[in-house]
Structures are given as structure tokens and as C-alpha cells.
Amino acid sequence: MVTPEEIARVPKVLLHDHLDGGVRPETVADIAERTGHQLPVDDPAELGQWFADAATSGSLVRYLETFEHTVGVMQTHDDLVRVARECVEDLADDGVLYAEVRWAPEQHLREGLTLTDTVDAVREGFEQGVAEAARRGKVVHPRQILTAMRHQARSLEIAELAVSYRDRGVVGFDIAGAEAGYPPTRHLDAFEYLHRENAHFTIHAGEAFGLPSIWQAIQWCGADRLGHGVRIIDDVDTSDPDSPRLGRLAAYVRDKRIPLELCPSSNVQTGAAPSIAEHPIGTLAALGFRVTINTDNRLMSQTSMSREMSLLVDAFGYDLDDLRWFTVNAMKSSFLPFDERLALIQDAIKPGYAI
Predict the structure, then answer these.
(1) Residue 295 CB-density burial (10 A; 0-12 exposed, 13-18 middle, 19+ buried)
(2) Which of 4, 11, 179, 245 has a 20 to 30 A CA-CA distance from 39?
(3) Domain containing 44: what range?
């Protein structure tokens, strides 16, 4: 059995982590007190528990409501820099080697920042976090994914912003928010633009909504990856555990090696999976899907990459070879250029698991 100490030491790759879902409770409380943002509770410890309790409702809509308070304290240049810096520091402390952190610039304009102001602020914070991690002897490579909210109408604008910054730390684009009633096809103009610009994008799909959401994300929009995608299990017949049968969509996703950004704890919180022990990741990994492990929202799930890995080790008996497979899967699926991905796999990930 892999020990928690071994899990803490091995390098990790994180593809699905929300900047506004990983703010430290102490930071939320501190900025809220300074800016006058009203919180449900003021004590940082109680606040952290409030986020976890509010997110553990089985409802994606209720889960998303918690972001009113994290986004609310990320409205100025200095506060965005701080949150971004602390994000990188926390990931580095958890042994994350590479991370694609997503966030929605359009949600941070209440105090007069422009879209470019917000991206520059997060970039500055990331650079500070990398420098601080290096000072402590840790290596971390953070990148931004710019998200558009699927219930709004700014996706093309955000896609253009992502392309304009793709040589300055932004590696991709995403749409997020409640899936039901807001299909990805509402944003086809953004996805068509990204295709023309040879840009990468992922789409939140197959979390709260089922197979139609996944099908649209892939076949209509051409997503490189699926944000969550956990409901692809609905197209896998497991009535005979010894011989699962894949439906046409599931087979396509597996055979095309479309990465699944699975977030075990978050998927349980939102009702997309019944429990960690019954999470579809076990079946999907065994069937050879391009499975990756992610945190989604570290604050709301009170989690980290080490904790997510530990939960899966306990539930499925995974060993270090399995964790390395998940990590290499993630690095292969990242939006970095191929040579940079390969270098991190050969020079950092494989040696890091040889313990």
C-alpha cells in the first residue's frame, strides 16, 4: 500500500483546478473584512467548514453558489495577485509539478478592472508564487486557462483574450457554470474561432448533465478535453462486471484518447458520483480511458492532489505505478507544447516516481 508520505513526495500534474475555488479561508476572511464583503461567518476555520458544508449538497447549482464569496474578494489587482500567488504556493507545497488553473476574467470587473488587467494580475501572482516556491526549493509550472461563463454571452471575447495571451502564460480556454439549459453549442462561434487559431480548449461537460452534453462538447464543438466527463459511464454497460460493454460514444471517447478531467471528491459532492468507492474512475481506468485525477475546487472540497490520490489508493488499492500512470496521462493531456510535456515526463515525473 502506498503511504501518505510517498504520495506527498511524488510529482503531480493538475489539469482541472479553479482559482476561485482554491482561495485560503483566511484570505477570504481578511479581504472581506477590508472590503466590506458580507460573509456567512467571519472566523476563518468556521468559514472553511461553511464552504465544505454548502458544497456538499448533491446539487451543482448549490455548489456554484459558494463562489459568490470567493469571487467577491477577487475584484482588485492586489487581491487577484495575492490569490494567484497563494494558489501557486499551495500547489507547490502539495508537490504539484505542473498545473493548469482556470478562472473567469469576466467575473472580476466590479471594481473597474479590464479583462486584460485581470489576466495580467493573475500572471503577476503566478510569477510571484513560482519565485517563492523556488526560494523554498520547490519547482512548479502554473499556467492559466481562461473560462467563459456558459450562461453569459462573452465567450468569443474571452476566447480572443485567451489567444492574445497564449504566449504569455495562457494555454487554453474553457466554458463553465450550470450545464442544464446552457449547452456548449450556444458558444459555437467561440469554438470555431479557437479552431481557426489552432488554440486549445476544454469544456465542462458530463458532470451535472449526461451524455448529450458530452456528445455536443466533442462532436459539435471539438473539445480537446472533457471537464469532468464522469457521466460517460452512462454509456458503459456494466451489468456483467467481467465484460463491460462500451456504447458508441464511450468507445469514441476512449479510442480517440480524449482526456477526462475527473475530480473525485467534487464529483461526489455534486452528485455526479455516489461515493469515492463507487466513483466511475475505477471502471474507466480499467477500461483504458485517458483518465486524469484533479481537485476542481480545493476550498469547497477541503482537498489537495495528495488527498485525492490517497482517497483513490484507499478505495481501489492503487500503487505507485498506477499513480504514475495517472500523472503521465495528465502530462500527456496538458496544453503545453509536446517537447515541454515530454521533458517534464522524462526529467521530472518518471524519476520522481522511482522511490
Answers:
(1) buried
(2) 179
(3) 4-352
Q: Is 30 among the annotated ligand-binding positions?
A: no
**Predicted confidence (pLDDT) at residue 238 exceeds the cutoff of 80:** yes
Domain count, the chain: 1
Residues 6+ apart with CB under 8 A from 210: 231, 234
pTM exceeding the 0.90 threshold for the entire prediction: yes
Grid cell, residue 57, equals: 449538497
Query: What is the C-alpha to C-alpha distance for residues 119 and 143, in angstroms, rounded to an integer?
Result: 11
> Which neighbouring-strand residues pair with 228?
205
Residue by residue, DSSP assigns 277-339 as: TT-THHHHHHTT--EEE--B-HHHHT--HHHHHHHHHHHH---HHHHHHHHHHHHHHSSS-HH
Spatial distance between the Cα atoms of 355 and 344, rounded to a whole number of angstroms: 17
Catalytic one of 86, 89, 207, 261: 207
**Phi-psi category of 29—alpha, beta or left, where left has phi over 0 and alpha has psi -120 to 50?**
alpha
- Cα separation of 109 and 96, whole Å? 30
Mean pLDDT of 184-208: 95
Query: Is 26 designated active site?
Result: no
Q: Could you tell me which residues come within 8 angstroms of residue 178 by beta carbon, excluding any fewer than 6 positions away? A: 60, 61, 64, 150, 151, 208
**Residue position matching grid coordinates 500512470:** 325
Q: Is 296 left (phi over 0), alpha (psi -120 to 50) or beta?
A: left
What would the pLDDT profile of 263-309 be if each residue is shown by its tens digit? 999 999 988 899 999 999 999 999 999 999 999 999 999 999 999 99
Output the nine-digit C-alpha cell for 44: 476563518
Q: What is the mean predicted confidence (pLDDT) over 183-210?
A: 94
DSSP letter for each residue of 200-229: -BEEEESSSS-HHHHHIIIIIT--SEEEE-
Is 36 annotated as a binding-site member? no
Distance of alpha carbon 231 from alpha carbon 222, whole angstroms: 18
| β-pair type (12-18, 96-103) | parallel
Average pLDDT over residues 232-251: 95
CATH of the domain at 308: 3.20.20.140
200 is in an annotated binding site: no
